[in-house]
Specification:
The complex is a heterodimer of chains A (253) and B (271). Chain A is α/β, with parallel strands linked by helices and 253 residues long. Chain A is built from ten helices and ten strands. Chain B has eleven helices and eleven strands. Helix content of chain B is 35%, strand content 23%. The chains are: A alpha/beta (253), B alpha/beta (271). The interface between A and B is large, with 45 and 50 residues.
Amino acid sequence: MTALVMLEGVTFTYPGAVQPALADVSLALSAGEVLVATGESGAGCSTLLLVATGFAPRVVGGRLRGNRRIAAERCGIVFARPWTQLTGLCSSVRDEIAFGPASRGLPGDVVLAAAERAMAELHIAHLAEREPSQLSGGELQRVVVAAALALDPEVLALDDPAAELDPEAADTLYDALPAIAAAGTAIVIATPDLERASRVATRAVVLEGGRIVATGRPAEVLGGTEAARIARAAGCPPPVPLDVPALLRRVQR
Amino acid sequence: MSGFDVRVSGVRYAYGEREALRRVDLTLRAGERVALIGPNGAGKTTLTRLLVGLRRPTAGRVTVGDWEVAGKRPDEMARRVGYVFQHADQQLFARTVADDVNFGPRCLGRAAAPVRAVLDELGLAPVAGVHPYDVPAPVRKLVALAGVLVMEPGVLVLDEPTAGLDRVQRDRVVAALRRRADDGTTVLVVSHDLAFVAETAERVVVMREGQIAEDRPARELLYDRETLAALGLRPPTTAQIGMALELPGSPIRAREVVDALRGTRWKEMPE
């Protein structure tokens, strides 16, 4: 499969910064994948999303070195702080979500259909008539994800997309991702939520100080789930179980 | 620092036509660690804002110790109730992290405020001289929390303090809050993060559609699979393990579960 995004030895430095936020990063992202990038705060996961979608340096400025090829025509990105992403122009959630496809100049019925489909996928049809500025943080986060989805992006980058969500809404969002990916979108998620990430990821990378320090299947890479930490601390020999069912299977009763 | 009881009696609040709180009664005791959970839009944030006087109830009353919140300005309330917004970016403005944290004490002429100690406690010492907007968003949250902790308020109200934090940062927040409660401070956290709730709270209040749906000890509620499921929630990892293995004492903190699992015989994996 051809990669939608290809990074080879990419180093990115924010404007005015001395240290690069991403250093010598190589990875490819293809349609159908759900790539999870994780690491401690400041490790470079959010920057990776900006670089992989082309928003850095084009929008945020800074300096990029190395080879980057973005074959995708449409990249959607959802920031961890969703209220920064509202248009400020729309008086209903439906209009807010329709704004992206409408600004692509698509016919009205196509725009509305895209908005309705995106709302259905995120389970927010009931919010359609609400005023975006009156939404709770979690409602807003889903609206912003739906708005990105309505653009029919080939690459969808999500920065800690469940940070504002209650657990049920977070599960709903994560559970929707494999189908979206299977329909031909490459998804890349930056998140510290290893529990949910390990459920949907097809591949995972761990960043540290802007560098990729581990990459591979989620089970190999995402060893930091709470179940894994408990099992390790209680003396479970490797391979450490990543979730509760796996942990329970390892207990000799 | 001695804490205060917080009393919310018959409180209602409406945003225009939409009723966000529909008669809420809640008492928090000084030194208690309470978590407020519930689905998005249940009224959690609205309720916390009433506690600091940022919003006035449409009906009912709120008291903090012997203060009637309705009779106080928000800046007066801030001396008793430290509030960390869900979006902590809204409360930072100084040129460095240390200046921001020191702003409150400086305004009140408290030279002896524990600025350095709080920066250390939250792991912020390395970025003390950095501009608050040059640190990652989750760290800004810790800066906002530090700015509240140095004021040593008798009541702490934190709206989603752990969103976006990594595990090390989260553990620091847990430790800081437990320490304050041990000293008598009343701690109320709004959180979707049941693992954090399990580490922090002794009592859990569940809100749904503007009302209090459950108010129970954390050890009880986090083990009540049916009640949690009805709220669209799942027990935290610790309680899931505790339930499945019938661990004694209903452990909810990770350390308690590890202790209960000591001596477990583990199967080797065939692969």
